[in-house]
Amino acid sequence: MRGKILIFLHAHLPYVHHPEYDHFLEERWLFEAITETYIPLLMMFDEIDDFRLTMSITPPLMEMLSSRDLHEKYKKHMEKLIELADKEVERTKSEHPLKHKMAKFYREHFEKVLNVFLSYDGNILDGFKKHQETGKLEIVTCNATHAFLPLYQMYPEVVNAQISVGVKNYEKHMEKHPRGIWLAECGYYQGLDLYLAQNNIEYFFVDSHAFWFADEQPRYGVYRPVMTPSGVFVFARDPESSEQVWSAMVGYPGDPRYREFYRDIGFDREMEYIKDYIDPSGVRVNTGIKYHRITSKSLDASQKDYYDIDVAMEAVEEHARDFLHKKEKQVKRLVDVMGVEPVIVAPFDAELFGHWWFEGVFFLKRFFELVNESRTLKLVTASEVIDTLEEVQIVTPADSSWGAGGYYETWLNGTNDWIYRHLHEMVERMVELARKYYDSSDPLTERVLNQMLRELFLAQSSDWAFIMTTRTSVEYAENRTKLHIKRFFDLYDQLTSGNINKKVLEYYEWVDAIFPEINFRVMARDVV
């Protein structure tokens, strides 16, 4: 009896697009993810004969990946990066041989990445769609702007709208209906499955404790999907797999042979040399050219040894084999206890692979190759699991998330609680206006209401509250939240006063252009 393993990658970034600027610091989040995670994944898909992978590409990420303006900015970004890599190849000839080796590697790698990008005319979503059509890759959606839905459960209209708009956006980009959804932050509350069922979603994912503390104990724990009372399948995360791969203490990415994330020439090189390749404001940033390895977690960054990718690939081989061995042992143990095929669900942030853990995509590729040779373990997609289930237990999962503490406090605490009185008021006014103007045939009124919904959705992104909690790019997160709140109420005042400023509306439509297909009436829909 073979066990099944479902690898899930959650690909998400908040909607950061500033067409009003030629360069904007936070747009680099997308450029780094494309270079280090998304295109390397596509390259892996092209190179491997057989694999099974389920992943989400969230609506904000799909919108950014399909933006012609961001395509042009990314192309210029990569051309500058290749120019820098060329300079590094020359400069490192007189430095340590491992630095010179890696400089040549980076130049070649960046050229490959840019060539893949150009082969899709900039829209790498076409690459993911191509692999989905083979059946090897399954892509699911997410709620519209990655809002943390449990904190809006008192407003069914906006919960339903977040899910509905996410589904519609997926259909626009992928040209098919999504079978599954990744709820932002794995945020779940009892009754949320009703909205998924209404939107014809067949399955979703929760964290382990959503099963452990369910209304009825799942017979097979987290190792078989269950079904909610609304008829939607639920998969739960396997805690063992998560710890083995991404634990800060014992996970594979911490191996001393792997590349050190926090040592980059964007910070190491003298300003005169590097100034044309960092932010125009002079703020130093990561370039992706890194010459040092982790070495030891106890060492200061300045004491790290030089990185050798060939040595790192030896670690990749060891870790891929070790992970397979541990999964095979786990399967044998579970089969003895369960008497049926276990389903091991291993979900991760996609950006862990390649971005945070440079060797992560190589690890995935090697693991997929090894699993294909295994007689104990089989790679599957989520749909392959639910399509072959002969019986399933009906369970109501517990309220939960995959954030710190497993509940909701990452997105509601003393650093960010101030946002919700504004967001909740925006929801209430949006519902009121959507019902009032539901039958409106005035194009200008419709444009205002559609833009108001965009501003509400953008303000609801869970990323802003998360950033406030983690204290990383706090000023940007707070400013984005305040900006969308201000624009929403500005449009509200214009509409209710009957004095609509077309130039202001056009500007908002240009700078916050997510979801051109959006229809405000979704907020007036009758829901459960």
Q: Could you list some keywords that capture this structure?
A:
globular, alpha/beta, 49% helix, 19 helices, 528 residues
Q: Could you list the spans in which at least 5 consecutive residues all have pLDDT below 50?
A: none
Topology, number of strands: 9
Helix content: 40-55%
Mean pLDDT: 97
**Estimated radius of gyration:** 24 Å
Secondary-structure-based class equals alpha/beta
Shape: globular
Distance between the termini: 42 Å
Q: Beta-sheet strand percentage? A: 5-15%
Series of secondary-structure elements, N-terminal to C-terminal: EHEHHHHEHEHEHEEHHHHEHEHHHHHH
The helix tally amounts to 19
Major sheet summary line = 6 strands, parallel
List the SSEs and their pairings.
Blueprint: E1 3-11, H1 28-47, E2 53-57, H2 59-65, H3 68-91, H4 97-119, H5 125-132, E3 137-142, H6 156-174, E4 181-182, H7 192-198, E5 203-206, H8 208-212, E6 226-227, E7 233-236, H9 239-246, H10 265-268, H11 271-274, H12 309-338, E8 343-349, H13 360-371, E9 377-379, H14 382-388, H15 418-436, H16 443-459, H17 462-470, H18 474-497, H19 502-511
Parallel strand pairs: 1-2, 1-8, 1-9, 2-3, 3-4, 5-7
Antiparallel strand pairs: 6-7
Describe the structure.
By secondary structure, the protein is of the alpha/beta class. The protein is built from 19 helices and nine strands. α12 crosses α13, α16 packs across α19 (502-511) and α17 packs antiparallel against α18 (474-497). The longest helix has 30 residues, at 309-338. The chain starts with a strand and ends in a 17-residue tail after the last helix. The mean pLDDT is 97.
